[in-house]
Amino acid sequence: MRAALLEALAGIVGPAQVLRDGDLSAYEADWRKRWRGRALAVVRPGSTAEVAAVVRACAAHGTTIVPQGGNTGLVGGGVPDASGTQVLLSLQRLNRVRSLDAANLTLTVESGCVLQAAQQAAAAAGLLLPLSLAAEGSCTVGGNLATNAGGTQVLRWGNARELCLGLEVVTAAGDVWDGLTGLRKDNTGYDLRDLFIGSEGTLGIITAATLKLAPQPAAVVTAFAACGSLEGCVRLLALARARLGSGLTGFEVMGRFALELVARHFPQLPRPLPAAQWTVLLEASDVEGEAEARARFESLLGAALQDGMVADAVVAESLAQSKALWHVRESIPLAQAEEGLNIKHDISLPVSAIPRFVERTDAELATRWPGVRLVNFGHLGDGNLHYNVQAPEGADAKRFLADEEHAVNRVVFDAVAACGGSFSAEHGIGALKRDELAARKSPVALGLMRAIKAALDPQGLLNPGRLL
Ligand code: FAD
Ligand code: ZN
Predict the structure, then answer these.
(1) What is the largest CA-CA distance in the chain?
(2) Is 463 exposed, middle or buried (0-12, 13-18, 19+ CB in 10 A)?
(3) Which of 105, 163, 307, 426 could serve as 150's disulfide partner, Cβ 3.0–4.6 Å?
(4) What is the Cα 413 distance to its own chain's centre?
(5) Contact in structure between 90 and 27 (CB atoms under 8 Å)
(6) Per-residue pLDDT tens for 185-225?
(7) How confident is the model at residue 124 (pLDDT cuts 50, 70, 90)?
(8) Is 70 in the pocket of ligand 1 (CB under 6 A)?
(9) Got the DSSP string for 350-405?
(10) At a CB cut-off of 8 Å and minimum separation 6, what does 350 contact?
(11) Overall pTM > 0.85
């Protein structure tokens, strides 16, 4: 059976693209090194037709498939289980830019196209693909859509879902659904595109997408502002929205300990402001020009300083300085990985509830686990916090995770629920939060999800054991 499937797969994609030997950890272990599985084979098709043929061959043999893009996912959704029976379907070779329509402001790329390459294709035409996350140098557009990725520009442009107009998908039956449209309006029945977005490889294999572009702004200016409290950050957000309107394109918050970790593990990075309880990264984009952007920004920060919501602020003087400020923010996930394993919570809350949530939950965690360290940062403009819990200094992080993760999650997720929030804002469910979904989603919602899964993948071939 296995030999026959492997031979069929080699016949479809060529023997060189069916990997079985050597070090396959780049495919079989996840980015956080929390999951390590073993695939029957890593299969790397080079076209949509090959993806469809691979799916048909796997279906004929009853072999399950784990789709994978850049393997930067944080919830263990894109790596095989330990059984050695699953086909790891890597989309990395489907990486072509198919077309760009400047007048329609759309870009069509294959799903294995690395996000940064898609951004560059847009920029080469003087346009902006406004999806940006720290993993953009390796994550793929297909992975972004399969997880409905967020990132740092959601407050202005929305999640990956809002940026996607059309999809091409290989179904679990091995058919190709060509839904590649650049239309902004198309009310012709159920929205199939939106079903596949965020489905984490459980409903179909995304092979290409048509994405929305925007004009490049004439200028982008970045600043750091130090706040004594989260209330101050929330008030600054309201002021920035009022003053900058749609010109506010980034509003990220970083807790003191998160920045301490960056300083510890990346001492070469700048420290633009003295340590504060909270530091906000603001980004303003302007259609007019740099001088206008800077003036609006300085007047905003001046007002915030005068009001006392901000204690100190610095505006980047150049593009290089702007990039350096972003680099500090984007180094937080890497710095905490250097510091050791931690318990990650990717939560969303009404922005107004965030200060109260953090104050109460910090206090409860500190009482139950004395010395516990909170790496708190995130996309405050979207109400999305990465509220991560690190073992006390000097403690065995692996042990802490094994013994305490469940109880810590309970404290955090109960507090999130009490504030009307979500336990998964942007990273998805994968293997990590499957039990949480089963326990916290309403039975009606779960029933509808299972019905959709059964209708689109009746054999349960696509990414089993993930999400549902
Ligand atoms: P993978 O990890 O390969 O796969 C993710 C999931 O999608 C898996 O379930 C997989 O089966 C499925 N999948 C992948 N490709 C396809 C396809 N073509 N068709 C069907 N299913 C598919 N996420 C955010 O939302 N916001 C952030 O700010 C953010 N920052 C990050 C920073 C770092 C440093 C890292 C490592 C990750 C970050 N992430 C973030 C998480 C991750 O980058 C995103 O989820 C990303 O969108 C995953 O893309 P990928 O190509 O690596 O997908
Ligand atoms: Zn994030």
Answers:
(1) 73
(2) buried
(3) 426
(4) 19
(5) yes
(6) 999 999 999 999 999 999 999 999 999 999 999 999 999 99
(7) very high
(8) yes
(9) -GGGHHHHHHHHHHHHHHHSTT-EEEEEEEGGGTEEEEEEEPPTTS-HHHHHHHHH
(10) 383, 419, 420, 421
(11) yes
